[in-house]
Amino acid sequence: MLKLILITLLALIALAGNSVFARLALAGSDLDPASFTIIRLLAGALCLSTLLWLRSTQPGNTKGRWVSAAALFLYAAGFSFAYVSLDTGTGALILFGFVQLTMILAGLLKGQRLTALEIAGTLLAFAGLAYLMLPGAQSPSQSGFLLMAGAGISWGVYTLLGRQSSDAIGDTAWNFIRTLPMTLLLAVPFLNTLQWDTYGVWMAVASGALTSGLGYVLWYQVLRHLTMTLAGVLQLSVPLLAAVGGILFASEPITLGFVLASALILGGIGLVIAGRRAT
Length: 279
Fold this sequence. Notes:
With about 280 residues, this protein is an all-alpha fold.
């Protein structure tokens, strides 16, 4: 249990790290969102391919899935373009709010019943997300919100598909590899606007190899031990971790609205966990 908790915590920190690296690259360099997406996915594919080659045992069928790769690509692209107009914590809050919604709906469709505490916790968490969107409460841009909402739904689908994985390294590696043809299609309409600089490239590489590639391996490893509801609601701790990262590394301000929204969300997480333990 201690090992599971530790791996889960490391995975959640990695998910938050992606938001920090994205903001550092897109707000602190000349790197454009299309280039960030391409470099991130390429770095993840190279890192995990190397890890797959180095390991001593090779399980049989570990080729990933095209539907998982498509969900991963749509998440990565929407994520990058949304972060042009969102700060670190707000973007992560929208992202994982829609992740949770996607996973809860999937659980309900599969017949998973929620306890009264889980229902209360979920409603409280979404009240926090709704509060963030109120006028005057650091309301984000409409385009940024819609792009990040789409990224959240895509990541929710990717997480749900990951529950079926029996080989976290193999499946994650091949999912990244399968996104590479999609990155070529993404580059085509932006050929005249692609911009690179050294700092931005290194941020994208760090995001792809470390917090995406290796972080997603950790996340796939713990998913089999979590219910869909718990996996969804745990990820709502990521915005708070991302906001702390934004304050420490990107000099972003923290507002009262974000603090209140985070308190509601974390309180909701606590209720969901308590409700799950009571069953």
